[in-house]
Structures are given as structure tokens and as C-alpha cells.
Amino acid sequence: MDLLKVLLLLGLGVSVNSDVSLQKRIIGGQNCPDTERLYHVRLESSNGTHMRRCGGSLIHSWWILTAAHCWKSEPGWTNVAVLKVHPRTAGEQRQMIQVTPVIYTSSNQQDDIMLLGLQTPVTDVPVARLPDCRYRLQLDDVVQLAGEAATTTGPNNQRLPPPAAIPAHLQCVNMRVVYASLFMQNHGLVFHVKAPNRDVCYGDAGGAAMFGDKIYGVISLGGAEACQRPVVIMDVCEYKAWIKRKTGLK
């Protein structure tokens, strides 16, 4: 938009956003490589009239790791795991989740991390590896997030709900750790990540935050306005022993 046009619009009292603001890639701006993130899972909850989506990660042939708030337990809702969604040529597989979810519960609260058991094991997808917690994430470490939610913002930079049509490609973005190992009420132990003009959106929760080739975090939430606050990530190292105990992972 040239300067004269901007000045004319401002003179008319029209709110003007920059191209960056209008076209902000909520989780980045690049397609995930087709050889990576094969473990990414799309979770779909529906009651016939409403649809809700989340992400997740296959960490075991029988188990998906995701955010606890992605589960819809109200009467009339069904929860489906869609596997092999990346790359798009993989050939999707759908399984209804019929096993009661396993949610981490401490003495005071349920944390925002959950394991979903599958009815049929998935043996032809490489699983996400759990973190090596001899190294804990530190300030300025860079993690990679991924998701399939909206890639633009609404009026006043508001986050948008997941689009009706799934984006053509799983999107990846690198974000920097700005706070590490924090306890957050009603969530649990988390770390925060941020990057200029990058964010997650509704529907990206539950997806993996990868450090190297291991899953160090699960996306929990961001603020109502995009790119204003850090993204809250569940710290998988805090829950690794629980995950291994529940899934039988070595």
C-alpha cells in the first residue's frame, strides 16, 4: 500500500493494518518438510453441528500425546484421531477415540496434558521421540511448532477459529524460549515461546514443540490477540515419567 493511499485512508478515519498484520502466518509461513512431522495427528471433535480441531503427536503405536483441553466429553460429542495427515499424500487414517483419556492429575488440579489410547495400533508411522531431559530448555533455545489452523488474523488482530478447509500443507515455525520452567495455575509446568509476527491459533493446541528431533513440549494456548503474548507450552520433561508409566515406553 503506497504512502498516499495510507494517508488518504487515515484522513477518512479508516483503520489501516500493515500487510504483515493482515497476512500474518499464525504459525509461521513455511510448509513443513514432507519427510518430517509424520507423527502429527489431527484431532476432530464434533456433535453434528459444531466441529473443533486440535493437534497431537503419535508417541507410541497405541498412544497420542496432546493437550487435555482438546477432549470434548459432553454428551453427543465424538472425538476422532486422524493419522497420517502429513504429508497430504500419506493417506489419512481415522480412528474414533473410545478409550477414556488419561489426563495428568496432581493433588490440586488437572494439568493441560493428555494421552489418548487407540483402538488399533499404528505401525507404519514413525513416532515422536520423548525428550532427553538431561538437558532442560533454557532461555533463547529455539523450538519448532506445527499446526493446521488459520494462517491470518481477523479484525483488530484477533485470532480466528480453524478454517472449514484444512490448509494445503502442515505449517511449521521456529520460536524462541522466553520463559522456562514456570508453574501456571490450571495448566501445570510450562515454558513460553515467542517470535516476531508469528503465533499459534485456535486449533493448533496439542501439537508438538520440537527441540532437535524430540518432543519437548505440547502447545497449550496463546492470548486472544495474535502475536501479543508468548505461546504457552506444556513442558514434557515434567511429565516424562508419567508418560512412560502410562504408555509402557522405555
Walk me through what this model shows:
The protein has 250 residues and is mainly beta. It is 10% helix and 36% strand. It contains three helices and 14 strands. It has helices spanning 3-11, 19-22, 236-247; strands at residues 30-31, 40-46, 51-60, 63-66, 78-83, 93-96, 102-105, 110-117, 142-147, 171-184, 188-194, 208-211, 214-221, 231-235. The strands form two sheets. The chain has a seven-stranded antiparallel beta sheet with strand order 6-5-2-3-4-8-7, covered by helices on one side. Strand 12 (208-211) and strand 13 (214-221) form a beta hairpin.
Q: How many H/I helical runs?
A: 3
How does the helix and strand content classify structurally? mainly beta
Low-confidence stretches: 1-27
| H/E element order | HHEEEEEEEEEEEEEEH
Strand content: 35-45%
Cα radius of gyration in angstroms: 19 Å
Major beta-sheet overview: 7 strands, antiparallel
How many E strands? 14
Oligomeric state: single chain
Mean pLDDT: 84
Strand order, largest beta sheet: 6-5-2-3-4-8-7
Helix content: 10-25%
Distance between the termini: 56 Å
Which descriptor suits the 3D outline? globular
List the main descriptive attributes of the protein structure presented here.
250 residues; mainly beta; seven-stranded antiparallel beta sheet; six-stranded antiparallel beta barrel; 3 helices; 10% helix; globular; disordered N terminus
